[in-house]
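User: I'm preparing a small set of examples for a lab meeting where we compare how different chains pack in three dimensions. I only have the primary sequence for this one, and I'd like the structure in token form so I can line it up with the others. Please keep the answer compact; I'll paste it straight into my notes.
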Amino acid sequence: ITTRDLTAVYSDPYILRVGHDDRPAAPIHHPAVTYLSARIDGQFVGAFMSIEFSDIEYELHALLHRKAIYRSRELTRLLTDWAFKHPIDRVTAYIIEGLESAFNFCRKIGFTYEGTRRNACRQGGILKDVYVLGMTRAEWSETR
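Assistant: Understood. Below is the structure token output for the 144-residue chain.
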């Protein structure tokens, strides 16, 4: 992904609505973080972020522009395929309370609700829960 594309992602109001008060709306530069471009017919429509949480787990995040939503399932399946090409055993998605459409989307593509981290982030000065969803390699293989 290019710096220009990342700048576009982190300046998109649709994407910024999921931001946290304690984190700047900016790319994370860390060896465990990988950004991947999301493209439809060659046009940049957002990005995905993968965080290597451990030797067995990647944490996945979608940063898709509104215009990509109609193809989000296909794009997310490509991301999940990419993740499981690595020697990991699971992927995890964290969904902030109030983003029920994102929660339901993850469930539809095969993630399992695993629990709630109560008061785990702050948005607009309000403490919110964060839902934890996960998918194992075996579960991914079953959905394909």
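A couple of notes for your slides: Strands lie at 33-40, 43-52, 57-64, 90-96, 112-123, 126-136. Helices lie at 3-9, 13-16, 72-84, 100-108, 137-143.

User: Perfect, thanks.
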